[in-house]
């Protein structure tokens, strides 16, 4: 087991550090850099008129991100929690139903995909495991190629899912900024490596390890990052953590914000979305909450933040992966300081095969 960890204390931190390599594997041979195109020939002609995503846990957060990308490309898309989808299947029309599942074995996701198939839908799975049940049962499989993940809490497979969903949308739709996204994806492994080398997330974890609760906020593409930041924190530290859409904070959750609840705000770019999130940050700062900004520094959010976890300026799609890396390190180091069983958190399983 110790050799398997290659000198790291836990599989999870090893897998966090494997992300640059996992991303390179995901992108390899699928991106034609000269032509600025993505090759999805093995999937045939999918050109969907609509997309429904089904997924659980971390994969659901990737699905929310994926649905956002399709909508940006003008294709109606929605992400569903697989357990809810299977309970009440929405009208599918001729939408493509995409399951996102690291293992390809999650019972809720399989059940949702089967329900869709029974209604005549075309199905595709985005998975890490070749030959998994979902890969065998779906019409098409897109492999994220992250390599085996042992830690129960997903880390490298989430960033590879995000990269894979970029490739899928670029290959299936005519986006205006395909070349720009491809360039950002190419730079992602290097940018991610720098964050892993330089992040001050461990120092932030040290400061807030005794906090009563942790809140994460983000807007648009960064909303799934906030949800994933909170899920990781819950899973491996057993602390109360919640992710909120930044704009929703004032509609209830703000009542929970105190000087004992650090708020982690993902603020990328300097468009209207980012500026509105800075407004939300001011609201929590005014209630004495410690603020940690995960930002590329394009707004003045640092003025309201106690700490900044810096990411380089890049495309917002790539920024989501980079911001998430800081949050993975934050949760990991908090859990390590609290002495938690990081690779096998209580009550959780890597793959849940019951509904
Ligand atoms: C379990 C794991 C989570 C994972 C979820 C979905 O609950 O503990 O980390 O996100 O299953 O797994 P999947 O293999 O479908 O991505």
TrEMBL record:
Its keywords, alphabetically, are: Aminotransferase, Cytoplasm, Glutamine amidotransferase, Repeat, Transferase
As its record notes, the protein acts as a catalyst of:
D-fructose 6-phosphate + L-glutamine = D-glucosamine 6-phosphate + L-glutamate
Q: Does the keyword Zinc apply?
A: no
Instruction: Classify the source by domain of life.
Output: Archaea
- Domain (SIS): give its ranges: 40-178, 204-345
Give the active-site positions.
350
Class of this enzyme: transferase
| EC nos | 2.6.1.16
Question: What are the protein's GO molecular function terms?
Answer: glutamine-fructose-6-phosphate transaminase (isomerizing) activity
Where is it located?
Answer: Cytoplasm
Q: How does it assemble?
A: Homodimer.
Tell me the function of this protein.
Catalyzes the first step in hexosamine metabolism, converting fructose-6P into glucosamine-6P using glutamine as a nitrogen source.
What's this protein's name?
Glutamine--fructose-6-phosphate aminotransferase [isomerizing]
User: Which organism encodes this protein?
Assistant: Haloarcula saliterrae
Task: Please spell out the taxonomic lineage of the organism that makes this protein.
Answer: Archaea, Methanobacteriati, Methanobacteriota, Stenosarchaea group, Halobacteria
Gene name, per UniProt, is: glmS
């Amino acid at each position: 087991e110790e050799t398997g960890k290659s000198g790291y204390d836990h599989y999870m931190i090893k897998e966090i550090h494997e992300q640059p390599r996992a991303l390179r594997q995901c992108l390899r041979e699928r991106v034609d850099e000269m032509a600025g195109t993505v090759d999805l020939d093995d999937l045939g002609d999918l050109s969907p008129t609509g997309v429904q995503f089904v997924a659980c846990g971390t994969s659901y957060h990737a699905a929310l991100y994926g649905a956002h990308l399709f909508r940006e490309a003008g294709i109606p898309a929605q992400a569903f929690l697989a357990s809810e989808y299977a309970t009440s299947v929405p009208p599918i029309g001729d939408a493509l139903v995409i399951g996102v599942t690291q293992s390809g074995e999650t019972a809720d996701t399989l059940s949702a995909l089967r329900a869709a198939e029974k209604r005549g839908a075309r199905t595709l799975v985005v998975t890490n495991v070749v030959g998994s049940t979902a890969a065998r049962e779906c019409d098409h499989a897109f492999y994220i190629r992250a390599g085996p993940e042992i830690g129960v809490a997903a880390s490298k497979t989430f960033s590879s899912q995000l990269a894979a969903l970029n490739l899928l949308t670029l290959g299936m739709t005519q986006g205006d900024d395909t070349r720009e996204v491809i360039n950002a994806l190419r730079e992602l492994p290097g940018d991610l490596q720098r964050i892993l080398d330089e992040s001050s997330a461990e120092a932030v974890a040290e400061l807030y390890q005794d906090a009563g609760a942790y809140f994460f906020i983000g807007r648009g593409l960064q909303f799934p990052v906030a949800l994933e930041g909170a899920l990781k924190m819950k899973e491996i530290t057993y602390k109360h953590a919640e992710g909120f859409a930044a704009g929703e904070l004032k509609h209830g959750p703000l009542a929970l914000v105190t000087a004992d609840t650090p708020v982690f705000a993902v603020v990328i770019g300097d468009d209207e979305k980012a500026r509105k999130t800075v407004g939300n940050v001011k609201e929590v700062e005014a209630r004495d909450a410690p603020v940690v900004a995960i930002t590329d520094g394009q707004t003045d959010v640092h003025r309201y933040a106690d700490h900044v976890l810096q990411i380089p300026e890049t495309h917002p799609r790539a920024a989501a992966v980079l911001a998430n890396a800081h949050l993975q390190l934050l949760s990991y180091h908090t859990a390590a300081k609290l002495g938690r069983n990081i690779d096998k958190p209580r009550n959780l399983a890597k793959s849940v095969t019951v509904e």
